[in-house]
Amino acid sequence: MNKTRLVLGIEYDGSGFYGWQWQTHHRSVQQVLEHALTQIADHPVTVQCAGRTDTGVHALEQVVHFDVTTERDALAWVRGGNSQLPDDVRITWMQPAVDDFHARYSAIARFYRYIILNRPIKSALLRKQVTWCPAPLDENLMHQAAQTLLGHHDFTSFRAQGCQSKSPCRTMYFIDVYREDDKVIIDISANAFLHHMVRNIAGVLIAIGSGKAPVAWTEELLVVKSRKLGGITAPPDGLHLGAVYYPERYGLTKHPIFNKLPKDAQRHD
């Protein structure tokens, strides 16, 4: 029987999940999404995502693909799928895949946003969506320190000790640190990310922004290539997978933030 590959955009609040990937005894995003899509497809569905998120990490737009033998229109997949999903996960769009599209391997870049609530009092409303830091942060020093990470580097100092990636090298396309009222925001994009890489970078930048470490610390960590010297891993609450960028031939809408990518990062277009 012929199979059709479909692509979905989904958003989720990761605070109620033990990450993206299936867990035997814990709730995962993949688990609830596959269950919902199986109901609509009327046959078992397995999804592949652009990037696995850890426990407590959110997604503004995760991209997934899956193969089906059932014909349904876009409304059935989006509204029907959402009717089967819990309130903390939503399908936002669907379209047929083009050519050899793969949610993970076709991606050129990923964009993450890390949000720090920088005020003396915790938030009652955003407590699961931001990381709270009561000490004053200097976002300008954080931004200055972050620029050392641009380009192709060995990010050993910023990867989890249990990271299973074969190579610690990644290409950082942009990293901006800025303030919006009482929030300090880190926007970061790379071709791919190591396990805990964004949270480890955020931990280092928070230490710099609070005056506990010098601006030069990011450069020093790139040189020493030691996770043990890399400081704390920032909490997952403030981390959001923002968007994924694919070559234009796949016909997926490009998030405006990817206009900041250097031209050589778009070479596959």
List keywords for this structure.
single chain, 27% strand, 269 residues, alpha+beta, ten-stranded mixed sheet, 2 domains, Alpha-Beta Plaits, 19% helix, globular
Structure characterization notes:
The chain is of the alpha+beta class. The protein has two domains: 4-106, Alpha-Beta Plaits; 109-241, Pseudouridine synthase I, catalytic domain, C-terminal subdomain (Alpha-Beta Plaits), CATH 3.30.70.660. It is built from five helices and ten strands; from the N terminus they run βαββαβββαβββααβ. Strands 1, 2, 3, 4, 5, 6, 7, 8, 9 and 10 form a ten-stranded mixed beta sheet that branches. It is globular, with a radius of gyration of 19 Å. The two termini are 32 Å apart. The model has no long low-confidence stretch (mean pLDDT 94).
